[in-house]
Design brief:
By secondary structure, this protein is mostly helical. The protein is elongated, with a radius of gyration of 16 Å. It contains five helices and no strands. The chain has one domain. The longest helix has 21 residues. Helices cover about 65% and strands about 0% of the residues. Keywords: Membrane, Transmembrane, Transmembrane helix. This is DoxX family membrane protein. It comes from Paenibacillus nanensis.
């Protein structure tokens, strides 16, 4: 349920961002402060493309650990933005953060190797 919710939110937010990029009326309310921070088009295009791709991956249940690893910093930035700058979508930011944390915990076995103190490459320590 969390995977589908998170995937749907990011997919819709990404598509909505393309409406902003193409100067169309967005179908979901956007944060003016967030849009001001992303005023450079290339950054907005990159972020919204990542949201669409990762949202779709979550919805089709493919490469979920990778999608979560990519979306986690974006989710953190969304939470911090709405916590300190624009409180209008704080509830959504909290829901995103909780869903992301829940899924990260569910897929924790995929991330545990990142914390190996003496990792090896090519069968030996480099």
């Amino acid at each position: 349920m969390s995977r589908i919710l998170l995937g749907a939110i990011f997919l819709l937010a990404g598509i909505n961002g393309y409406f902003v990029i193409f100067e169309l009326e967005p179908f979901i309310a956007t944060s003016p402060q967030a849009m001001a921070l992303l005023e450079m088009d290339y950054l907005l295009i990159a972020e919204k493309s990542i949201e669409v791709i990762c949202g779709a991956l979550l919805l089709i249940n493919r490469f979920v650990p990778l999608a979560l690893a990519v979306l986690t910093p974006i989710t953190g930035n969304i939470l911090l933005l709405h916590l300190f700058v624009d409180h209008s979508l704080l509830l959504l930011a909290c829901i995103l953060s909780l869903a992301t944390a829940y899924l990260l915990y569910g897929y924790k076995d995929h991330y545990l190797r990142l914390f190996d103190r003496s990792a090896e490459a090519f069968g030996k320590s480099l």
